Amino acid sequence: MPKTYTHPLVTPLDPDSPEGQAATEALSEVLADIWVAILRRRAAAKQQAA
After folding, report:
1. Model confidence over 1-50: pLDDT tens digits?
2. How many other CB atoms sit within 10 Å of the CB of residue 1?
3. Residue-by-residue DSSP string for the chain
4. Residue 3 in contact with residue 9, Cβ under 8 Å?
5. How many Å is the Cα radius of gyration of the chain?
6. Start-to-end CA span in the chain (Å)
């Protein structure tokens, strides 16, 4: 298995810690916002093509 690289300026978070859970929730929200934006752009492009 390859060794995991961690950038020297990044402190890894324990995913089970409160900070890790907050980071996971924040990332999930951002990814959901991005996905919604993609779907809206696709829908707008389809509407303009019709």
Report:
1. 778 888 899 888 898 999 999 999 999 999 999 999 999 999 999 999 98
2. 3
3. -PPPP--TT-PPPPTTSHHHHHHHHHHHHHHHHHHHHHHHHHHHHHHHH-
4. no
5. 18
6. 50
